């Protein structure tokens, strides 16, 4: 897990404003047990954890253009809204995701990851960082402020272009 880029403060404000004004009203409660009471909104496709297939998700071309600059191979992304000091507990991302993943961090948080040898990596972040990490390693987010927005970005491990993988 490492920081690969830091966005300028003006760009962070623009992204947060766009998300807050246009996408937060559409957010739904998180379904994954490791992030109960967090709100999220999937872009392009939403994984169905029980069927291991995709469901249609929200389209936002402005944000998707930015996401594709972060990861040109991006197939789906999740915008998450953590309020009330809620983070996300230790977990590995599900089968929909290839190991290489990205987080666009838009708030104060401590991200932690444990590799296969149980080595802990911890990053204290203040906002604007783009992080590249292995989504199959255990990882979690410990909030450092009451409200935080983040964007998780993945390439598909289950072929998103194969219509048989959609429910």
Q: In terms of structural class, how would the helical and strand content be classed?
A: mainly beta
Strand content: 35-45%
Strands of the widest sheet, in order across it, are 1-11-8-13-6-3-2
Low-confidence stretches are: none
Instruction: Give the biggest sheet.
Output: 7 strands, antiparallel
The SSE string, one letter per element, is: EHEEEEHEEEEEEEE
- Overall outline: globular
Distance between the termini: 32 Å
In round numbers, the mean pLDDT is 93
Report the helical percentage: 10-25%
**Helix count, per DSSP?**
2
Q: How many strand segments?
A: 13
> Whole-number radius of gyration?
15 Å
Structural description of this entry:
The chain has 167 residues and is mainly beta. The protein contains two helices and 13 strands; from the N terminus they run E-H-E-E-E-E-H-E-E-E-E-E-E-E-E. The protein has helices at 9-22, 61-70, and strands at 2-6, 28-29, 39-43, 45-48, 53-56, 76-83, 88-91, 97-105, 109-114, 120-125, 129-134, 138-143, 147-156. The strands form three sheets. A seven-stranded antiparallel beta sheet has the order 1-11-8-13-6-3-2, with helices on one face. The protein has a four-stranded antiparallel beta sheet with strand order 7-12-9-10, with no helix packed on it. The protein starts with a strand and ends in an 11-residue tail after the last strand. The mean pLDDT is 93.
Chart the SSEs and their pairings.
Blueprint: E1 2-6, H1 9-22, E2 28-29, E3 39-43, E4 45-48, E5 53-56, H2 61-70, E6 76-83, E7 88-91, E8 97-105, E9 109-114, E10 120-125, E11 129-134, E12 138-143, E13 147-156
């Amino acid at each position: 897990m490492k920081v690969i880029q830091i966005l300028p403060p003006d760009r962070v404000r623009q992204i947060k404003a766009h998300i807050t004004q246009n996408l937060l009203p559409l957010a739904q409660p998180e379904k994954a047990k490791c992030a109960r009471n967090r709100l999220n909104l999937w872009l392009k496709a939403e994984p169905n954890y029980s069927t291991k297939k995709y469901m249609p998700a929200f389209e936002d071309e402005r944000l998707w253009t930015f996401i594709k600059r972060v990861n040109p191979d991006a197939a789906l992304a999740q915008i998450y809204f953590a309020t009330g000091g809620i983070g996300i507990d230790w977990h590995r991302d599900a089968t929909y995701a290839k190991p290489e993943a990205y987080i666009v961090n838009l708030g104060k948080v401590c991200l932690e990851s444990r590799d296969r040898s149980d080595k802990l990596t911890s990053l204290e972040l203040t906002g604007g960082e783009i992080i590249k990490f292995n989504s199959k390693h255990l990882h979690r987010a410990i909030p450092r402020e009451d409200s935080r927005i983040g964007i998780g970005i993945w390439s598909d491990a289950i072929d998103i272009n194969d219509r048989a993988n959609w429910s």
